[in-house]
Amino acid sequence: MNAINELKSNPRPAGARLTGLGTYRPKKIVKNEELVAAIDSSDEWIRERSGIKERRMASDDDTVVSMGVAASRAAIKDANVDASEIDLVICSTATHDTLTPHASALIASEIGATNAGAHDLNAACSGFSYGVAESFAQIVSGNARKVLLVGSERMHDFINFNDRTTAFLFGDGAGAVIIEASDTNCIGPVVWGSDGSQSEAIKMSVPWHDYKRDTSQPFPHVQMAGQQVFRWAVGSMAPIALAAIHEAGVTPSDLKAFIPHQANMRITDALVRELQLPDHVVIARDIEVSGNTTAATIPLAMAALRESGAVSRGDLALLLGFGGGLAYSAQVVCLP
Ligand SMILES: CC(C)(COP(=O)(O)OP(=O)(O)OC[C@H]1O[C@@H](n2cnc3c(N)ncnc32)[C@H](O)[C@@H]1OP(=O)(O)O)[C@@H](O)C(=O)NCCC(=O)NCCS
Question: What is the pLDDT of residues 168-226, one digit of tens each?
Fold first, then answer.
């Protein structure tokens, strides 16, 4: 028998780019005033400490899958592709309601992406940026030519609305992008990492198996050491963002937009100061009306900037995800 030590590989494109963008925002708006009584807080305190005025809350019918489907359909239309052309569907989520089936397989089936591989990705608040990097890798390796990347979250199922340190921070929603093979590259190298030694700073109140043994305790919900996360984000994320700019071979003045994970407006402000971005760089501040939607913040904020007319297709934007894990991820992309 002959030994075979070389196999065929798919043709490899020069690069990849984001070509379509879509979102889904649940209809129900929850203002700060509706949350403050349960946590002895005020609209002023929440606005001043987080920059949040309101957030969206999913209805009973809005699942991670249904919101992801709506955002995906909009992204597919925006990219002017057919669902059957999609080779891979990735859903970044931390809040899908079943371990199996996974969300991406259901989304793929629902939208008619019948020729696509499908897998979920959980990197919490940096899930979208991780997903861009994973999509890029699948495209430039030749495994896929068109990828649908979805960030979809139903955070409110896992929030204790009596916990004053988290009740006002989070929201629900979904965003999706189409990423396609391209003759010219428009997704810069990812700069990423994680620090599990600080994972207790954002965690579930109890693991599922503990809750199963004692269901009299509160349903598992997000707990957070807010100040620790705040200090970590402000102290550690600026060098990551600068490294992503450097790795992409551009300078801050080449950027049109900075789209960080929407965790707290004061974190965004501190990062903007640290990065010394030129005045012409538009800063995403979607947290004001959306809260923190975990893996959905970056595509939602991207769409808000585009809808406002502040950015256009092809503009360079710095994406920066950070949060649970504690994981982080950044890259420069041309906007869809
Ligand atoms: C949660 C967060 C907004 C709290 O803001 P903060 O400025 O750190 O607030 P502190 O926890 O220091 O509390 C300050 C004071 O406000 C009080 N307080 C806390 N929560 C409050 C609330 N919801 N309403 C009113 N007062 C509140 C505290 O008791 C404290 O009072 P004291 O000074 O009398 O002791 C902030 O820490 C944060 O956003 N952290 C990062 C969160 C994040 O990014 N999470 C997701 C990561 S992906």
Answer: 999 999 999 999 999 999 999 999 999 999 999 999 999 999 999 999 999 999 999 99
**CATH number of the domain enclosing 32:** 3.40.47.10
What is the span of the domain harbouring residue 106?
15-182
- The arithmetic mean of pLDDT across residues 53-61, rounded, is 98
DSSP letter string, 105-171? HHHHHHHT-TT-EEEEE--GGGHHHHHHHHHHHHHHTTS-SEEEEEEEEEGGGG--TT-TTTTTTB-
Using the 3D structure, point to which of 152, 182, 212 is the last residue of a domain: 182
- How far apart are alpha carbons 149 and 98 in whole angstroms? 19
As a whole number of angstroms, the distance between CA 51 and CA 233 comes to 16
261 is a catalytic site residue: yes
pLDDT tens for 134-169 read 999 999 999 999 999 999 999 999 999 999 999 999
Q: Whose CA is nearest to atom 24 of ligand 1?
A: 41
Say whether both 174 and 31 belong to one domain: yes
Expressed in angstroms and rounded, the spacing between residue 225 Cα and the centre of ligand 1 is: 9
Do 152 and 208 lie in a common domain?
no
Q: Which of 182, 208, 238 is the last residue of a domain?
A: 182
Catalytic-role residue among 32, 91, 96, 125: 125
pTM: 0.96
Measured in Å, residue 228 CA sits from the centre of ligand 1 at 10
164 and 201 assigned to the same domain: no
